[in-house]
Each structure stands twice: as structure tokens, then as C-alpha cells.
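User: Please fill in residues for this 138-position structure.
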């Protein structure tokens, strides 16, 4: 797999400590793919944030949502998932922060598309979503 343009959605108030190693491990691990992280690196006023994030997501091939303990109530994550759906960007989730299949999910994120932080399973999920949504026929 090449380097899919990936937006990593996460609860920036609670899960930045998981997002950074997730992105770093994807680049430095022996996985058969690379993640080109397109998430925002700085804080912006709400209207600027929405415009910038919507634009970034529209240009991505996939979205990975990091599912932390408080993520279900993170309004930014819900908006990001909405943008992904608007632009037909396929989504899957990865459990972080000691969460599991009993944890709450944000609206728009399906339980059967949310997996443990395991690079073999993540690689399989990326292979799957690269055939879905806006990626069909690629």
C-alpha cells in the first residue's frame, strides 16, 4: 500500500497523548503502509477550524478515529465524521486509552468498524476502506 491521505480524528482535549504515538508508530513500524496524517496541528477560532478541517478531510482518502474514553462527547470529532460522510471518505475507528467494544462511540462511527490498536488489523482495515467510498475503482 502506498501512502493513503489519512485524517486522524481524535479528542484533542483527552487523547493527544495517544494520537502522537499512533501517528509515529505508523511511520516507524514495519507495517505495509504509511499514514499521511492530515489532522490539524494548532488551535484556531471555530470558524477557521471548521473551514480548514473540512478542506483537509475533503482531500483525504480515509479517516481513522481514535476512540478514547471521552471521545463520544467530543463535538469536534462528530463534526469531522460529518465532513468525512459529506465527502464520501471511508471511516474506521481504533480503540485507544484503555477503551474497548463496551466504550461509547461518536455518532456516525460504527461499532463493527472500530478495532483494537493492532497493526495487522489496522492494515486490513486500510486495505478494506481503500476500496470503499471515494476510493472505489482506484
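Assistant: Residues filled in for all 138 positions:
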Amino acid at each position: 500500500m502506498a501512502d493513503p491521505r489519512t485524517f486522524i480524528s481524535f479528542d484533542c482535549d483527552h487523547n493527544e497523548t495517544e494520537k502522537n504515538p499512533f501517528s509515529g508508530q505508523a511511520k516507524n513500524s514495519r507495517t505495509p503502509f504509511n499514514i499521511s496524517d492530515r489532522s490539524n496541528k494548532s488551535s484556531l477560532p471555530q470558524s477557521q477550524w471548521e473551514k480548514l478541517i473540512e478542506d483537509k478531510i475533503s482531500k483525504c482518502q480515509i479517516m481513522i478515529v481514535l476512540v478514547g474514553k471521552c471521545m463520544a462527547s467530543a463535538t469536534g470529532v462528530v463534526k469531522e465524521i460529518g465532513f468525512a460522510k459529506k465527502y464520501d471518505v471511508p471511516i474506521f475507528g481504533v480503540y485507544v486509552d484503555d477503551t474497548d467494544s463496551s466504550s461509547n462511540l461518536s455518532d456516525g462511527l460504527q461499532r463493527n468498524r472500530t478495532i483494537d490498536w493492532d497493526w495487522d488489523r489496522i492494515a486490513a482495515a486500510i486495505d478494506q476502506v481503500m476500496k470503499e467510498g471515494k476510493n472505489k475503482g482506484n
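For context: The two ends are 12 Å apart (CA to CA).
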